[in-house]
């Protein structure tokens, strides 16, 4: 964080609408210097649009944008502002020239001299592990290499804020993991404020200090990654956070912080504070569910115990993902060892239990 | 058959004898069409870029007009340029009808829509996001346009070739506004027509060969530049 308490970027009363339809509505957003912020949300939630507004690449919006307290378009021109930032898109969008020239582009715009350009370009090619490609044509690169060039090009201008619009979503997982690592290191090294739209949970958890969740053009949640993952505010965030079981029901009782939600014919107990008769969404993470044979007695501390039939078992690495039908669907993770001990098979009856504290309820 | 063979032999002799008159005609053709192409590039590339990058009412109509004008018949251009440059015409005071300048004007009118049309297509082919990317790297508006032109350079060189090819080979306009005056406005195409009419097939063939070679060498150079840019 910077010493001053003026946010590096502040958006106020941003509004884009097409008649009835609100495309983006952000009454206030402050981003501090050095912060790494993820914007998550379903497709069409307005993530990309927000990013384009914040980077002033999209001008048709009403509202105000402040860079270090200076209003863009008033105290500093949009052009001056754009010189302080840079942008990386999902596609690498490289120019049809060499890798070196691509990375040099932003520096040439800023009229750096030849020696400086050489020095800075090579430094950034090294940062992203692509110095050996410098003289190659940008058109001959693999997807991962091309995105590295795009990142090096964006960092080469030493932006104060870097915007990344789903930068890794078109890459395969190993490439993506390697790139996330390089990006993480560079954001830290260069102390760049980073704002990215993303679809990926690992990206969010690894790269950001703060997450904002968007839905229908509005910010619906703003917090640390832990807060957002543990207390998801809606179904989208819940599934983004890895919650496999998402059920809707109606709150029956609320007794001193413990609510009972009726889902199908079952009653699920959860910690929460939602008034009776309201609709609610119940989120249960698969790792919080314990399975045991029907003959065994329930564990004392778990308030929720159900008997169900296994409908499907899907192996996933060290775990087996077990789908149950307990009158409502339930998904649990079981280690391979436990699965063997329990002798799990499809069609088998089994008991599932989970604590009230591991159920997250969202009032609707 | 004999006629052609004889013609070709005589033509080669003529070529290697560096006939003064033929040389002058060739140089004039090259100068006139070269200047006309340069003028068309200056107007066509800038207009094409403006049209491609801006959204305005009636854009489709403008683009379809440009595309239609890409096939303007040289005789029609010749007719209108003659009328405009006629002594009582709107530009009669310039007094350039039946001079090489008139041919340059007419050929520029022919090549400009070709270059404009190809420029529009070339710039519009570049993904819109690339513009955002360029701006997102801190480009000024002029720098962005320059980057887009660089990205479109292969198509733009094709536009130059098409423009030059169109005017070096055109005859209708040259003969109408230039008048095929010996030693003054006689160019390769008008000379070929005249020699053929007179039955001097050897000279006509020699002129045709020169015309083809000239077109070929210009395109060879441009293609070389284009492909060098491509393979890098």
* Global geometry of chain B: globular
Helix percentage of chain A: 25-40%
Order of helices and strands of chain A: EEEHEEHEHHHEHEHEEHHEEEEEEEEHEE
Report Rg of chain B: 20 Å
Shape of chain A: globular
Largest sheet of chain A: 6 strands, mixed
Which ranges of chain B are low-confidence, i.e. pLDDT below 50, for 5 or more consecutive residues? none
Description:
The complex is a heterodimer of chains A (364) and B (232). Chain A is α+β, with helices and mostly antiparallel strands. Chain A has helices at residues 47-54, 78-82, 99-109, 114-127, 143-156, 173-190, 201-207, 225-230, 235-240, 336-342; strands spanning 9-18, 21-31, 36-40, 62-67, 70-71, 85-88, 161-165, 193-197, 210-215, 218-223, 245-255, 258-263, 266-271, 279-284, 290-292, 304-316, 319-325, 329-335, 349-354, 359-363. In chain A, 26% of the residues lie in helices and 36% in strands. In chain A, strands 6-7-8-3-9-10 form a six-stranded mixed beta sheet, sandwiched between helices. A five-stranded antiparallel beta sheet of chain A has the order 13-12-11-14-20. In chain A, helix 6 (173-190) links the parallel strand 7 (161-165) and strand 8. In chain A, helix 3 packs across helix 4, helix 3 (99-109) runs parallel beside helix 5 and helix 4 packs across helix 5. The longest helix of chain A has 18 residues, at 173-190. Chain A is globular and about 80 Å long. Chain A starts with 8 loop residues before the first strand and ends with a strand. By secondary structure, chain B is an all-alpha fold. Helix content of chain B is 79%, strand content 0%. Chain B is globular, with a radius of gyration of 20 Å. The relative contact order of chain B is 0.16. At the A-B interface, strand 6 and helix 3 of A face helix 6 and helix 7 of B.
């Amino acid at each position: 964080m910077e010493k001053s308490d003026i946010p590096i970027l502040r958006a106020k009363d941003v509004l884009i609408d097409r008649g009835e339809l609100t495309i983006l509505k952000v009454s206030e957003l402050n981003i501090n210097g050095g912060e790494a912020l993820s914007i998550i949300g379903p497709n069409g939630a307005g993530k990309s649009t927000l990013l384009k507004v914040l980077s002033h690449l999209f001008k048709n919006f009403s509202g105000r944008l402040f860079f270090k307290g200076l209003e863009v378009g008033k105290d500093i021109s949009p052009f001056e502002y754009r010189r302080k930032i840079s942008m990386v898109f999902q596609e690498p969008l490289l120019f049809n020239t060499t890798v070196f020239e691509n990375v040099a582009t932003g520096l040439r715009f800023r009229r750096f001299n030849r020696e400086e350009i050489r020095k800075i370009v090579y430094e950034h090619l090294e940062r992203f592990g692509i110095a050996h490609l410098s003289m190659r044509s940008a058109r001959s690169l693999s997807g991962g290499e091309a995105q590295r060039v795009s990142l090096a090009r964006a960092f080469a201008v030493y932006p104060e804020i870097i915007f990344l619009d789903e930068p890794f979503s078109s890459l395969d997982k190993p490439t993506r993991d390697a790139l996330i690592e390089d990006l993480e290191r560079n954001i830290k090294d260069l102390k760049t404020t980073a704002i990215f739209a993303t679809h990926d949970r690992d990206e969010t958890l690894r790269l950001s200090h703060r997450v904002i969740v968007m839905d229908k053009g509005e910010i619906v949640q703003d917090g640390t990654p832990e807060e957002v993952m543990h207390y998801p505010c809606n179904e989208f965030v819940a599934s983004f956070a890895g919650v496999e079981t998402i059920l809707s029901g109606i709150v029956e009782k609320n007794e001193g912080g413990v609510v009972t939600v009726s889902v199908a014919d079952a009653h699920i107990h959860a910690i929460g504070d939602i008034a009776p008769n309201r609709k609610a969404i119940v989120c249960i993470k698969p790792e919080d569910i314990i399975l045991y044979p029907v003959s065994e007695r329930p564990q004392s501390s778990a308030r929720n115990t159900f008997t169900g039939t296994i409908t499907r078992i899907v192996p996933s690495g060290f775990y087996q993902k077990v789908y149950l039908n307990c009158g409502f669907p339930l998904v649990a993770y079981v280690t391979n060892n436990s699965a063997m001990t329990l002798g799990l098979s499809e069609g088998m009856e089994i008991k599932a239990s989970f604590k009230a504290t591991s159920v997250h309820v969202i009032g609707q | 058959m004999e006629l052609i063979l004889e013609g070709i032999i005589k033509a080669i002799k003529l070529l290697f004898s560096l006939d003064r008159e033929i040389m002058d005609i060739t140089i004039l053709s090259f100068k006139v069409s070269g200047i006309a192409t340069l003028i068309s590039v200056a107007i066509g590339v800038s207009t094409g870029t403006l049209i491609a990058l801006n959204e305005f009412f009636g854009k489709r109509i403008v683009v379809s007009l440009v595309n239609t004008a890409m096939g303007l018949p040289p005789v029609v251009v010749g007719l209108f340029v003659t009328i405009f440059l006629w002594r009582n015409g709107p530009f009669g005071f310039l007094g350039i009808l039946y001079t090489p300048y008139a041919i340059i004007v007419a050929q520029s009118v022919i090549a400009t829509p070709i270059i404009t049309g190809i420029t529009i297509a070339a710039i519009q082919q570049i993904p819109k996001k690339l513009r955002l990317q360029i701006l997102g790297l801190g480009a000024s508006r002029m720098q962005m346009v320059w980057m887009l032109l660089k990205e479109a350079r292969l198509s733009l060189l094709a536009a130059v070739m098409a423009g030059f090819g169109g005017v070096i080979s055109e005859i209708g306009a040259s003969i109408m506004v230039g008048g095929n005056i010996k030693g003054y406005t006689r160019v390769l195409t008008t000379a070929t027509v005249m020699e053929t009419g007179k039955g001097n097939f050897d000279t006509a063939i020699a002129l045709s060969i020169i015309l083809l070679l000239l077109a070929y060498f210009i395109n060879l150079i441009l293609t070389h530049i284009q492909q060098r840019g491509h393979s890098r």
